[in-house]
Amino acid sequence: MLQKLLAYQRKREHREQVSRFFSASNIYYTNLYSKTHRKWGMTMVRVVVAGGGWAGCAAANAARKAGAEVTLLERTDMLLGTGLVGGIMRNNGRLTAWLELEALGAPDLLAIIGAMTRHANIDFPGHRHASLYDVDRIEPMIRAFLEESGVEVLTQTRATGVQMDGRLIHSIVVEGEEQIQGDVFVDATGTAATMRKCIRHDGVCVMCILRCPSFGPRVSIAAQAGVEEIEGEYMEAMSGSCKLIKDSLGAWLVERLERHGVVVVPIPKYVMARDNLRRKACQQYALKEYADNLVLLDTGPAKLMAPFFPLEKLRLIPGFSSARYNDPYSGGKGNSIRYSMITPHDNTLKVSGVENLFCAGEKTGLLVGHTEAIVTGTLAGHNAVRLAAGKPLLDLPRFLATGDIIAYINESVRTEEGRRRKYTFSGSVYFERMKELNLYTTQHREAERRARQAGLSGIFSRKIAGQKIV
Hints:
Blueprint: H1 2-24, H2 30-35, E1 46-50, H3 54-65, E2 69-73, E3 88-89, H4 93-103, H5 108-115, E4 117-124, E5 127-133, H6 138-148, E6 152-154, E7 159-165, E8 168-174, E9 179-181, E10 184-187, H7 195-202, H8 212-215, H9 221-224, E11 230-231, E12 237-238, E13 242-244, H10 251-260, E14 262-266, H11 288-292, E15 293-298, E16 302-304, H12 311-314, E17 325-327, E18 337-338, E19 341-342, E20 357-359, H13 370-388, H14 401-412, H15 416-419, H16 428-436, H17 444-454
């Protein structure tokens, strides 16, 4: 009898603690919390992630590891978004973030990236110890991993709206008017501009990997839920690189590229190209070396580190006489436009004004890069489950680079000057900050020490939902 009374008391204290947490946070979640407690006192949570880029995949993986049922919605026929044409990892401060993610219990996607790496520990202008994954081979591996983990992956499923009850989303509406219901949602739909905005910049659709004419434009879940997102033409920027078909390049150039992973080709004086560095989203590559040279990286195709380069001028350079673009197809004219909005949120990545919505990836601020997307996606997916399970949300401490960048950007984008910048672990403003604050490290032990100091070692590998309530 005494054991039953003690068990009852513990359960009552747990519910009171959850109630105080919701009240203190001004979160009206009593109904949400109650409905996730099914039979036998188990927390059963359903998380729906909109957007299948690196951020969305990381969010889905983190939510699944935390014990949730997860559905991942992607409007095109492939996952990874701009990760299908990117491929750069572990350069500069991104190595620090990689090591912290491993120490925090989120090594899964990183392990797949490692297995798909074509070149490791290479240096190129402004960047050290980079690795390059094969952009042509990685997507099926990521999709297979997620599906084998139990994530429901729905491609060619474009979100068009939401159904709400007050400040709660209860379903995402997709084309065809089908509703995908969930307890908590993650908006990882990115910040790519609509075709109208791309045409304003480039004059035409440049036919990039996002393929809006085929699959429809991106739709912001936060905006559909009534969130007033921060917008401004001054924030917008072009994607920072193009893909060239490797077989269209000179044999000597291909041989050097595949052997070393990087080739730097001086631009002859007789080839005058427009100064397009200021238009790059990737400000860490807006260096003089990239204005004076063609920097090529081997990510499967030949990755040209320029937002665009006129084809007729490119073909005047030795080794490029037959060059042809693969992405965007009109890489001689322009590139995709990104960073068209910022979604207001706190440092747990919970979206302001909607009680069960988190954001990840570029939507969290003017973040550039796959590593940055994986960091924010992992935190958003994990916190989505914590919220539905009645647990306090995780706010990563600022002595972790992965925590500091989220908080720093949240502070920076409050001003127009801050919104004119782009932020990344790998260069520009934030990498300099990392070095000034001694956050930059290349050592596993230091990353593990920081995770232990925070009491967060392996936190992202711990199951939260699907556990018995005591």
